[in-house]
Design goal:
about 350 residues, Rossmann fold, 2 domains, six-stranded parallel sheet, about 15% strand, binds nicotinamide-adenine-dinucleotide, binds zinc ion
Length: about 350
């Protein structure tokens, strides 16, 4: 039987291939942001008031929302506040939203931009070290839910990410440390200049960035490179989870606020390095080097007391872990990460015991 419809070839809807996310380091970002569209709105972390006074006029923002925000407020309820404001100021499809703040703010505002009017253009102006080298880059946006972190979200690339280390001059010490957890992670999975450089850097004096500017730039470029190889995270982007398997479980078990994310990732990295020695014959010298960095930056080297059974339960609770088995990012060498699946609980318990 030949009817008309059966002769039609398969049809394809092509997703947009022209999406570009520019990541600019330092320089003339104000002009670049101002050129993104006819109407710019700024949503900023309310704590950044002195910066807002400067940035708002510099980019020609037509309205500014100062959002009180923290990890605990990274929720759909806060997204609703952003929607309500966007509605109130009459945002349309050609409105551009600039998100200025740490990773909590950029994740949340990016998610609002991904969903408002089924997606409007946004740009990120990350102000914390963690957001400059990691969170604001790569288009993963989202919020926390009652049943877990970052469980509601989208992939929505910002048109521009402007990384300017001058914002770090007002960043509190503990937030520097939390960003350093991610810098360290990138140095371990990528190796090269960054790994060599970190051994020679102290935290900058308050109010300064010191010699960290090129480190911020290099770490951001490593994130760009990894994301470019694997935007939707089924391959190399998983390497960015180095240190995060145990790190997330620790944060979750101890309750958010006891250890910052970066502190937990630091401890998680030490566990991952110990496991790398056992499973992939990584030289123990790497762990020694990393301990030295962490000590000099004031990151904790010992673990608060945790119940291993409970920690293991949290490690394996995740749905993906239940279906496919827990996947670990371990190192064969510095700069040579591998995914490893059959890590025995005894090995993890031993690695943790060495930290207490
Ligand atoms: N999307 C991703 O790919 C990705 C990757 C890693 C982390 N994240 C997310 O990032 C979040 C953590 O980000 P964060 O560590 O930036 O937290 P954050 O946004 O809470 O910022 C940390 C603190 O520093 C303050 N702050 C930020 N910039 C400042 C500045 N220049 N001067 C003074 N104070 C400043 C903030 O007000 C806040 O109190 C988490 O929610 C995490 O899930 C996302
Ligand atoms: Zn992280």
């Amino acid at each position: 039987m030949m009817d008309n419809t059966s002769q039609k070839p398969d049809m394809v809807i092509q997703s947009r291939q022209d999406t570009r996310s520019r990541v600019v380091i330092g320089g003339q970002w104000a002009e670049l942001l101002a050129s993104l569209g006819p109407r710019l709105l700024l949503v900023a972390d309310a704590r950044l008031d002195p910066w807002i006074e400067v940035v708002g006029p510099a980019i020609g923002a037509q309205s500014v929302l100062r959002l009180p925000i923290s990890e605990a407020q990274k929720t759909l309820a806060t997204v609703q506040q952003v929607y309500a404001w966007l509605g109130g100021v009459g945002a349309t499809r050609d409105t551009v939203v600039v998100a200025m703040g740490g990773g909590v703010l950029t994740d949340l505002v990016g998610y609002a931009a991904a969903t408002y009017l089924r997606g409007i253009t946004w740009a990120a102006l990350p102000t914390s070290l963690l957001a400059q080298v990691d969170a604001a880059i790569g288009g993963k946006v989202g919020v926390n839910t009652d049943w877990g972190k970052n469980l509601v979200g989208a992939f929505h690339l910002p048109a521009v990410v402007a990384v300017d280390s001058q914002f770090l001059t007002t960043l509190p010490r503990r937030e520097w440390r939390t960003g350093l957890g991610e810098v360290m992670k990138s140095a371990l999975i990528h190796g090269g200049w960054l790994y060599e450089r970190l051994g020679h850097l102290e935290l900058p004096p308050p109010g300064e960035v010191g010699e960290w500017e090129p480190v911020v730039a290099e770490t951001a470029s490593i994130k760009v490179e990894v994301v470019n190889r694997d935007l939707y995270e089924d391959g190399p982007r998983m390497f960015l989870n180095f240190g995060h398997t145990v790190g997330h479980a620790l944060e979750n078990l101890l309750g958010y606020g006891v250890l910052t994310h970066g502190e937990a990732v630091g401890l998680g990295s030490l566990v991952a390095l110990r496991l790398s020695e056992e499973y992939l014959h990584l030289s123990p010298q790497v762990r020694e080097t990393v301990r030295r960095w962490m000590a000099s930056w004031g990151l904790p080297l010992t673990l608060p007391r945790v119940d291993f059974e409970e920690l293991w339960e949290r490690l394996t609770r995740d749905k993906k872990a239940r279906v496919r088995g827990l996947t670990w990012v371990l190192l064969h060498e510095v700069g040579a990460p591998r995914l490893v699946q059959d890590v025995r609980p005894e090995s993890v318990q031993r690695a943790l015991a060495e930290l207490s």
